[in-house]
Amino acid sequence: MKINCLWRTTKHPKPDIKLLENAAVKAAELAGLDMSFEWILDLQFVGDRAMAAANSQYVGHQGTTDVITFSYFDSEEPVFPGDVGIELIICTDVAAREGTARADSSYADELMLYLVHGLLHSSGEDDLTDEAAKSMRRREAEVLAGLTPIFDFSRIFPE
């Protein structure tokens, strides 16, 4: 898996790209994605305004959100080596607010959660029903538990 990362916000410091790439590869493995060939994970980190525009344009919802996932593994056309397999748009402003509001989280924790959440959507998980949402939360916890002994999220995403 190869990673393209676009940091499209000036409110928050840029991540450590090498650490982010390593964590994303491990997260994709733990999420159960096909790692048998080189596909591209496209990550875009944006602020509220850009996320609200993307949410309206692509999802048809008003306002900002944490992460939008486009998984081309779900499409009729196969993903070939060198193709973008997954695109994630992740909102840094939502992560900053949620990380501050929740005692058990942080800005960096939230960004990793959103990355994991998007990867899990791409591996077939959804959260559209109560039962599916419980399964998604359980899988998020499993993947994050696999990442935390290896990666210091605050080193990946400094505040």
Give me a quick take on this structure:
With 159 residues, this protein is an alpha/beta fold. The protein has one domain: 3-Layer(aba) Sandwich (Collagenase (Catalytic Domain)). It has helices at residues 17-31, 48-59, 92-101, 107-122, 130-147, 153-156, and strands at 2-8, 40-46, 67-71, 84-91.
Walkthrough of the structure:
The protein is an alpha/beta fold. The protein has a single domain (2-147), classed as Metalloproteases ("zincins"), catalytic domain (Collagenase (Catalytic Domain), 3-Layer(aba) Sandwich), CATH 3.40.390.30. 47% of the residues lie in helices and 17% in strands. The chain has 6 helices and 4 strands, in the order E-H-E-H-E-E-H-H-H-H. It has helices spanning 17-31, 48-59, 92-101, 107-122, 130-147, 153-156, and strands at 2-8, 40-46, 67-71, 84-91. The protein has a 4-stranded mixed sheet with strand order 1-2-4-3. Helix 1 links the parallel strand 1 and strand 2 (40-46). Helix 1 (17-31) crosses helix 5 (130-147). The longest helix is centred in the C-terminal third of the chain and has 18 residues, at 130-147. The radius of gyration is 15 Å and the shape is globular. The mean pLDDT is 97.
